[in-house]
Write a structure and sequence with these properties.
Layout: H1 2-12, E1 18-28, H2 31-43, E2 49-53, H3 61-66, E3 69-72, H4 80-98
Parallel strand pairs: 1-2, 1-3
Length: 105
């Protein structure tokens, strides 16, 4: 099942995109660290960052091999719906930090 899901997702991935996996085993970052990651990729010429949320059984090894980075929003397990909201909020927060706007701790 993981292999099929990975194959399906790879077909949807833009050719030059950098794939970032969201997985509980990934690197945990603070919001300022995520902001630096986003800024570094933006300033380094990355055209597209694509964030993929792991399925119920995680990612296949072949899909993991395609990833540029693996990030954990938490070591806890959340539903896909919750992760989408958490990711969106963290991206918003990251760009707020990059733009020098007030940052809520």
């Amino acid at each position: 099942m993981r292999e099929r899901e990975g194959e399906r997702l790879l077909k949807l991935l833009p050719k030059n995109a950098r794939l970032v996996l969201l997985d509980e085993r990934g690197e945990q970052m603070s919001s300022p660290e995520l902001a630096r990651f986003l800024a570094t990729n933006r300033d380094g010429g990355t055209q597209e960052l694509v964030f993929a949320i792991g399925g119920a059984y995680g990612f296949s090894e072949s899909f993991r091999a395609r990833a540029f980075k693996t990030v954990a929003l938490s070591r806890m397990t959340f539903t896909h719906q919750m992760v989408r909201i958490f990711l969106l909020e963290q991206l918003y927060r990251g760009f707020t930090i990059i733009n020098g706007e007030p940052y809520h701790h």
